[in-house]
Every structure is written in structure tokens, then in C-alpha cells.
């Protein structure tokens, strides 16, 4: 199963992330976000940040999670390549993300993400989970 893929959206980038369960799909969504910004293969997972969030539904939880990733990217000047997510039945998410400080001499500079959008954000759960989101560039 692929971890994520992109789809065409005017002036934005959309992606679908996949996983065996909701936790893995959220982790792959984090990977998709940072592959838009840089090549995650070049990001060493030397520094760690943990956070927790609770939301009223799964789509809001996805939005809040992606917003939190962008927040730490912008405030800590970091790129992330490893994501560990645990979501309980009460829609409480615990995340540990790993990466390193931005070094544009080392890291490929791709596209800056301005914001996460709710537009067409979706979660499908069957035998696996498929998440869809669009980011504003």
C-alpha cells in the first residue's frame, strides 16, 4: 500500500494519505506535508517534539494535527521526517514528531505551505484508512 499521493488542485496541492488504521494514515499525512516542503529522505530525525490535541470529530482532528505540524515547522524552524500518532476513541491525539533544524544548504527547498484548508478534507475508513486534504501554497 502506498503511503501517500498528490492530486491536482488550482493554486494548491491536494494529497491523499493511506494507512492500515487512523494512526498510520495521520502519520503518512505528516510525511506528505513535509514532502511538499522538502525531501523527507534528507531530514535526520535527531530532535523530537511531542504534543496532544483533542477535537470534536475526525476531520477536525486531521485539520488540527496538520495545523500543529505547520506551527512547529514555522516556530521552531524545523523539518520533520518521522511521525508517531496515537488516537483514542475520545478523539484525543498524542503525537511525537522527529526532525531537525532547517538547513537550506542541506535540505532541498521545494514549496512553502501557507495554510491547511478544510476544503475537500475527508476521511474514509474501510479495511484501510484514506485521508484527503488540500494545502494552500
Short synopsis of the structure:
This protein is an alpha+beta fold and 137 residues long.
Strand-helix topology:
Elements: E1 4-9, E2 12-19, H1 22-37, E3 47-54, H2 58-76, E4 78-87, E5 92-101, E6 115-125, E7 129-136
Antiparallel strand pairs: 1-2, 2-7, 3-5, 4-5, 6-7
Helix pairs in contact: 1-2
Structural overview:
This protein is an alpha+beta fold and 137 residues long. The chain has helices spanning 22-37, 58-76; strands spanning 4-9, 12-19, 47-54, 78-87, 92-101, 115-125, 129-136. The strands form 2 sheets. Strands 1-2-7-6 form a 4-stranded antiparallel sheet. It has a 3-stranded antiparallel sheet with strand order 3-5-4. Helix 1 (22-37) runs parallel beside helix 2 (58-76).
Amino acid at each position: 500500500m502506498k503511503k501517500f499521493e498528490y492530486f491536482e488542485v488550482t493554486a494548491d496541492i491536494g494529497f491523499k494519505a493511506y494507512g492500515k488504521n487512523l494512526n498510520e494514515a495521520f502519520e503518512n499525512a505528516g510525511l506528505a506535508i513535509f514532502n511538499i516542503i522538502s525531501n523527507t529522505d534528507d531530514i535526520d530525525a535527531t530532535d523530537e517534539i511531542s504534543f496532544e490535541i483533542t477535537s470534536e470529530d475526525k476531520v477536525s482532528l486531521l485539520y488540527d494535527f496538520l495545523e500543529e505540524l505547520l506551527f512547529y515547522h514555522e516556530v521552531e524552524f524545523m523539518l520533520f521526517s518521522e511521525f508517531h500518532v496515537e488516537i483514542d476513541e475520545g478523539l484525543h491525539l498524542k503525537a511525537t514528531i522527529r526532525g531537525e533544524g532547517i538547513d537550506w544548504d542541506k535540505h532541498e527547498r521545494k514549496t512553502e505551505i501557507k495554510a491547511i484548508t478544510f476544503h475537500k478534507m475527508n476521511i474514509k475508513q474501510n479495511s484501510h484508512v484514506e485521508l484527503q486534504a488540500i494545502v494552500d501554497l
